[in-house]
Amino acid sequence: xxxxxxxxxxxxxxxxxxxxxxxxxxxxxxxxxxxxxxxxxxxxxxxxxxxxxxxxxxxxxxxxxxxxxxxxxxxxxxxxxxxxxxxxxxxxxxxxxxxxxxxxxxxxxxxxxxxxxxxxxxxxxxxxxxxxxxxxxxxxxxxxxxxxxxxxxxxxxxxxxxxxxxxxxxxxxxxxxxxxxxxxxxxxxxxxxxxxxxxxxxxxxxxxxxxxxxxxxxxxxxxxxxxxxxxxxxxxxxxxxxxxxxxxxxxxxxxxxxxxxxxxxxxxxxxxxxxxxxxxxxxxxxxxxxxxxxxxxxxxxxxxxxxxxxxxxxxxxxxxxxxxxxxxx
Length: 329
What we know:
Layout: E1 3-8, E2 10-11, E3 14-15, H1 17-33, E4 36-43, H2 50-53, E5 59-64, H3 73-87, E6 91-95, H4 98-111, E7 115-125, E8 128-135, E9 140-145, E10 152-156, E11 171-176, E12 206-210, H5 220-230, E13 233-236, H6 238-242, E14 263-267, H7 273-276, E15 284-288, E16 302-304, H8 308-324
Parallel strand pairs: 1-4, 1-6, 4-5, 5-11, 6-10, 7-10, 12-13, 12-14, 14-15, 15-16
Antiparallel strand pairs: 2-3, 7-8, 8-9
Helix pairs in contact: 3-4, 5-8
């Protein structure tokens, strides 16, 4: 039976969210093709992750190596290259994170395997692996395939794949894998984390998000009033941060934060892929945009096609009136 392999990333004794997304996608592909899903996790103390990973994988290879540490690319590359040459998986899936971008190109060279990076989807058709890459700021999706090879490598974009629950109980195999030599030219020292700002949009139940359709900074006030009556927080798309209208801590999207509020209101946001990745799993999405072809409407539960500068003040007024009206007994 052919194998699909997922490389697991971990940070600070925690499985990386992107690896769970890749596992879920790998499980889906394995079920569709009848292949076996093998997950590989490498590090000094990684046995703790095996049970959780086994919920998706048919087999979990727990490779103990102290030099790999906190998912360091170079020792992981050496170990994975040997595993891939031995097992010859049909497909290797790696998260498109800083670790994945460091690991995948050199791994592809060492294993002589073709590589497609930053994929937003991975499918198969008649036994052929197909991938989709988003180009030109989300305006074009390119469908790419591999030549006939023993093993192909892809990296998957964070947020492109939903983590679907699985009740698989895969076999766990633990391996001690010593490596000769040191990797002194690149070593892990410590983590540096950006200091938390005044607002954490990832914890808000209601987000009122503003895009370039608001036209100018002064108009953000009307969005702030809507957020106030809804008991929510103002967030934004990348152009608003680029213009300097709101701080980076408020940005939703691929280069910002991933959010899952109960209510997400997209005000004047067209819906580039990079933004939708960060909010598409919101429980309810309401979009207001004067362009009826805006991509945001494709994922919205409710949509209003009109000028946000007309709609938002009226909507704020109506919500405030409803909240002030006592319920009918």
